Sequence to fold (100 residues):
Amino acid sequence: MVCEKCEKKLGKVITPDPWKSGARNTTEGGGRKVNENKALTASKNRFNPYTSKFETCRICRQKVHQVGSHYCQACAYKKGICAMCGKKMLSTKNYRQSSA
Fold:
């Protein structure tokens, strides 16, 4: 779960998605720029396997594999928060969730 503000920080794929509705990497919705040089713009969003330290989840201390995230997907879903910034997105008071 990622909030609207952090959705802009997510990486985009080089090739456009043929399934246009709901895709972030098409030119119609403003997700991708036309004639953009991906060698220059993709380096900040790309996963770097040579880093010595992976980010850990702030709740369960599990390794997080999404670039820029501070919470793992399981903890973000369980708490109802954004995985990148931790902002409360929805109330989980009346939800019946598993402990996994």
Observations:
- The first helix runs from residue 38 to 41.
- The mean pLDDT is 77.
